[in-house]
Structure formats: structure tokens, C-alpha cells
Amino acid sequence: MKRKYLIIALLIGLTYLVIVSYYFKTYNQQISLQKNFLSKQAQLLSTEIEETGSQFENDLNEILFSQNISLFFLDPKIRASLENQLEIFYSRYGSLVKNIFFYNGNKEVFSLFRDKKNKFITDIYTSHNQKPLLNKGVTDFQNNEYLYFLPVFQQGEITGNLVVTIDYLGYIKSVFKKSYLKDIQWQWLINPEGTLLYTNLQNSDTFQVTNMARVKEDISSGVSGVISHTIKLDEKETDIISSYYPVRLLNRDLGVLFSLKTDALLKVLITNSIIILTLTTLLIVLIILVYEWYFKDNKRQWNKVKKSRDELLHILEALPLSIIILDEKQKIYMLNQSARDLFNEEGLKEGGKLGEWFYEISNTGETIDGSRSDESNLLYYQKGHKEHVLLKEEIPLTNQRKKLRSEERRVGKECRSRWSPYH
User: Fold this and answer.
1) pTM (2 decimals)?
2) CA distance 283 to 11
3) Per-residue DSSP letter, 112
4) How many other CB atoms are found less than 10 A from the CB of residue 162?
5) Which distant-in-sequence residues (6+ apart) come within 8 Å of 327 by Cβ?
6) Which residues fall within 8 angstroms of residue 408, CB to CB, at 6 or more apart?
7) Selection from 37, 54, 61, 46 nearest residue 181 by Cα
8) How far, in Å, CA of 322 to CA of 343, rounded?
9) Average pLDDT of 105-131?
């Protein structure tokens, strides 16, 4: 019994081990897939940002070379045409542009921006101070704003600057929205020094992220990668995976990161594991209960049959009749004491077979009253100096005790009535 329960315990343990191993393997596979997915997202986003920056510069240069912008303040037709082109440009890059300026060496300034109702506002004025003219395209940080300068030349000499105020964060936010999944996946924007510029992670006022030194080093070196690390948010640590990618937008180096919580995936796998383990345990317990019931019921039936058999054999053993029970192969299954005493010279024993002498058919003769009788059921048996005439009666052995006793009484009565003179 102990061995049986030990086998059951080992079976349950092995089942648990297989299920846990399966889900652990599935978890690692899912983590690998998520890393690849995040890497693709970070790469696609970085490519989109750089393509936007490149197209931004091309469109702005096209505006400069389409008109003689140096005559902007002198020719109303040129000014109207350029204003229209700049408004179209502004609309196309609305999330990246805050406002647009154009100024020359005569302190003349043109400005274009949008009000709160999203309507274009233009203004031309004379500045008190002459702004310096830059002779190359650069991005400069002035008064907490990033300004993109594009020089305007006439006959090889610089005559003005077209300046666009760049809203890096506004543009990055609009791009990040496409891939944001609340409380599951979010994005970061950092500079090469590792300073966090923006993240759409909620409740991100105070948090700590591990292993950012590697990210900082790779971004500053222009290298992409994927890491597994933790974030501590609201005094709670969470495992995350992050994919980072360097990007350059309008002369400014940045790094974008895509992060994903792994605990959500882990919770799903743990929940599924618990469900499967619970169902498996219940199934095993049910199988054990059914087996126990079946085993006990079979054992009970077997004990009942064995008891009936023992009672039957005891009755047969006590009968004064010689009884031999044969199995389906005609081998001796049992013979009682009377049969052993009667046929002791023949050497009959359990497991052996009856000799041919037992099956010899006697001739048909006359009975005492003169009638003829079939003596095929008679056995003439010589034992010592005595000849015994025995009545053979073959009956099927059943579990019906009453029928057996009735047959026994009938055989005994017939023997006593017909053959009593020979005994």
C-alpha cells in the first residue's frame, strides 16, 4: 500500500515538474519574442524620426531655393508666396514646429506662429538689436528653446537667417503615442548623457531604473541593444525589458527606449500554471478515488467469491459422495476426501487428469425389473478384491448453493435406491 501511494506521489510530482518546465520554457520563449518585438519597434521608430528630420531639412531648403527670399521684405508678391509655402510647411510638421522666423541684416523680422485657435498669425517688425547671422545650418539652444538656423545667401554673401523653433518633445510625444500601451509598454527619450528627457510612463515623478549606465554608454556610442532590468516605482520593483536605439534629429543626438513589463506575462503564465496544476491535481485525485473504489469493490467481490468458494469446498469435502471437479482443460481442480480414499490407487491429485478408465462406456443391460438401461453413466471400478459399481453424474459447477445441494440429494437418493445391494 505504501508503495502504491509512493508511486502516486511520484506521478503527481513528475506531472507538476513537466507542467512547470513547460511554462518556464514558454516564459523564456515569450521574453525572447518580446525582446525582438521591442527591438523592431525601437528601430522602426528611430528610422521614422530620422526620415522626418531629413525630409524637414529638404522641404525647408526647397522653400529657400524656390524664391529669392532675400527680397522678402521688398517684394509683396514674393512675401505672399513665401508666407503660403511656410504655412504649408508649418502644417506638415506641426508637432515639430513651434514658430518660424526670418530676419535679415537690416533688423527686419518676420514671424509666423499659431494661436490657441490654431489660426496662423504673421507679423513683420523691426528689431531693436541686430541678431547675428549664422552662415551654416545649426541647431542652437537659446532661452530654453531649440532653434534650427538655416542661412540665406545672395550672390555668395549671407543676407539673413530662416529660423525654426523646434519642439522636440512635442514631436516625440506624438510619435510615442502610436506604440503606447497603458501600464504595459511605454517609451523613454534620453540624451547621450543618460538624462531622461521624457517618458509616457504614468506616475513617473519619482522612480529608479537599474542598469542605465550600459544604456547611456551604448547610446553615446551610437549602439543599439536590449537589456533586462528593474524599475522601482512607488516603492515597488518591477522586472522590465528595454530596447534602446540611437537617433539623430535635426543635428541633435538622442536615444529612444521601448520598455515592457514582464510581470504581466509572468502573471498570465503563473495563472495558467496554477489552473493547469489544480485541474491536473483534481483529475489525479479523481482517478485515484475511482481506482480505490474499483479496487475495493473488486476486492470485496473477490472476497465474497472466495468465501463462497471456500464454503462450497468445505461442503463438498464433508459429503460422503466422491466428488471430482474438473476445470475447462479437463484437469482436476479439486477432489474431496471421499474421492481421494476411493481412488487412492490411481494416484489422482489436483492438477492431474483422469485416466481413460474413467470414461469407458459400459454395455446396455437389463435392470432388475427386466427393462433395458443405458449404462453409459456407470463406472465398474476394481479396488482390491472388491468391484465397485459407481454412478457417474457430470453436472456443471455453479455458484448457486441451493441447486448444488438439490443435485447432491438427488444423486445420493438414486444411488441408495438403485445400487444399495452392491455396497
Assistant:
1) 0.61
2) 12
3) E
4) 23
5) 333
6) 319, 321
7) 37
8) 9
9) 91
